[in-house]
């Protein structure tokens, strides 16, 4: 088909040189795909390089402690990806003797591997004609074929997957999949795509009907909830602080944070001091309280916005066993906490 041939010709002349494109080793392809989920190439590349350097084989990654993996992942967000990465590494290393499944259906059984990732690995590593559908592919197909079906609907997921499967080059599925993803990333961009020099513009419905900005269609998600986080940054006279490990299935699972008090709205220093005086960490203890940030730091997650304050609490000694402030960089923390640690300069 002309569409597929045009894409692969464009790709051969315009593709970026990236390390995971120099191999068909399923470990490296899987690693790159997990890192690049919900992450741009420019941000993900340094993490890929860091993981390959520290864990050159699936066995090295499987042998690592989860805390080490989370620390190396720090700053990428969506930490469930890192936990699933580690779980799958241990499964492949221990149960499959380091050999990745070689079909789309078997790859789908791995934790953290969905339709897109399974298709990418199956096509690139094992030459299976399994079409990838990610944000870039949705955009290219919806614009070129003028499809109004919302991409974040079950009907849309099925429709675009079927179309991509019909278009894929059965003889060279790896080249086609990488071509259409790359085309969406650097040619048919979300904003200001290069339509006038696009090799597909003659047949592109969105271009010819002036609908570039209308497609793809996406159902608006629910409004993000506001939450008010107050972190207690203890500093004792013997230079210790308190970090707590987050348990449960909520955000930042197994990452570390300062003691947290969540309240219903932002609060001033005077009222906040009254509120925390009865806290177990401060009960019957004299302390000095100061607010580090003048305005709440807004940290936006997919379904919630965190309005965050960091309260510096100077005490003579801690009520619990703490950690040296000089070792605080060794702990895996959310990027919100990490940014504070860097700016506060505990060293």
Describe the protein.
It catalyses: Hydrolyzes free adenine bases from 7,8-dihydro-8-oxoguanine:adenine mismatched double-stranded DNA, leaving an apurinic site. Keywords: 4Fe-4S, DNA damage, DNA repair, Glycosidase, Hydrolase, Iron, Iron-sulfur, Metal-binding. It comes from Flaviramulus basaltis. The protein has 347 residues and is an alpha+beta fold. The chain folds into 2 domains: 2-214, Hypothetical protein, domain 2 (Endonuclease III, domain 1, Orthogonal Bundle), CATH 1.10.340.30; 225-344, Nucleoside Triphosphate Pyrophosphohydrolase. It contains 14 helices and 9 strands. It has helices at 2-14, 26-36, 41-54, 58-63, 66-73, 80-94, 104-107, 115-126, 135-145, 154-167, 173-186, 205-208, 269-276, 335-344; strands spanning 225-236, 240-241, 244-245, 256-257, 260-263, 287-291, 297-300, 304-315, 323-324. The strands form 3 sheets. Strands 1, 5, 6, 7 and 8 form a 5-stranded mixed β-sheet that branches. Strand 7 and strand 8 (304-315) form a beta hairpin. Helix 2 (26-36) runs antiparallel to helix 8 (115-126). The N and C termini lie far apart (61 Å). The mean pLDDT is 94.
């Amino acid at each position: 088909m002309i569409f597929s041939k045009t894409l692969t010709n464009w790709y051969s002349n315009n593709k970026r040189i990236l390390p995971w494109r120099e191999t068909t080793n399923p470990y490296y392809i899987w690693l790159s795909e997990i890192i690049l989920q919900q992450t741009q190439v420019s941000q993900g590349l340094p993490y890929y390089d860091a993981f390959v350097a520290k864990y050159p084989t699936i066995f090295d990654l499987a042998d690592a402690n989860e805390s080490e993996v989370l620390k190396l992942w720090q700053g990428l967000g969506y930490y469930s990806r890192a936990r699933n990465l580690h779980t799958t590494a241990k499964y492949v290393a221990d149960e499959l003797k380091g050999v990745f499944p070689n079909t789309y259906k078997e790859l789908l059984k791995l934790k953290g591997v969905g339709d897109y990732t399974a298709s990418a690995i199956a096509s690139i590593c094992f030459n299976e004609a399994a079409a990838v559908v990610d944000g870039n592919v949705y955009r290219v197909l919806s614009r070129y074929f003028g499809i109004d079906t919302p991409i974040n609907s079950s009907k849309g997921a099925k429709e675009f997957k079927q179309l991509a499967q019909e278009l894929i080059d059965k003889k060279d599925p790896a080249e086609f999949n990488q071509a259409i993803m790359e085309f969406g990333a650097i040619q048919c961009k979300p904003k200001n795509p290069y339509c006038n020099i696009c090799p597909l513009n003659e047949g592109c419905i969105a271009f010819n009907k002036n609908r570039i900005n209308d497609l793809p269609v996406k159902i608006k998600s629910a409004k993000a909830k506001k939450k008010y986080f107050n972190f207690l940054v203890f500093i004792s006279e013997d230079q210790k602080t308190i970090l707590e490990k987050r348990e449960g299935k909520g955000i930042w699972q197994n990452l570390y944070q300062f003691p947290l008090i969540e309240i219903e709205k932002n609060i001033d220093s005077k009222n906040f001091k009254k509120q925390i005086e009865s806290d177990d960490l401060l009960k019957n203890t004299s302390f000095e309280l100061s607010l580090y940030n003048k305005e709440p730091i807004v940290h936006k997650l997919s379904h919630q916005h965190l309005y965050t304050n960091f309260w510096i609490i100077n005490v003579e000694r801690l009520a619990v066993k703490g950690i040296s402030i000089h070792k605080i960089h060794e702990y895996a923390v959310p990027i919100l906490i990490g940014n504070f640690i860097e700016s506060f300069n505990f060293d």
